[in-house]
């Protein structure tokens, strides 16, 4: 896969080096699990902390919507 450069907001989570999209999503999931950001009642919802709020643009996002929101921060 082609390595893509993350935006400054996304780089705060995944680092500033170019990465394939699959690695970016993997690192975002590591961040979500590390800080326990999945909703307790509905595990499909991701609660955004300060770093993820800059990427999502809102307080929470569906896990399926998350990939689309991350794509906006990759070049």
Automatic annotation (TrEMBL):
Q: Where does the DM2 domain start and stop, copy by copy?
A: 1-75
* Any Pfam family matching the protein: SWIB
- Could you name the domain of life of the organism this protein comes from? Bacteria
Q: Which InterPro entries match?
A: SWIB_domain, SWIB_MDM2_dom_sf, SWIB_MDM2_domain
Query: Under which name does UniProt file this protein?
Result: Chromatin remodeling complex protein RSC6
């Amino acid at each position: 896969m082609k390595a893509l450069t993350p935006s400054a907001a996304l780089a705060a989570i995944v680092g500033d080096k170019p990465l394939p999209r699959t690695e970016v999503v993997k690192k975002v999931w590591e961040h979500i699990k590390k800080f326990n950001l999945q909703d307790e009642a509905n595990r499909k919802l991701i609660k955004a902390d300060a770093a993820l709020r800059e990427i999502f643009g809102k307080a929470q996002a569906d896990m399926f919507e998350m990939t689309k929101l991350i794509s906006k921060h990759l070049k």
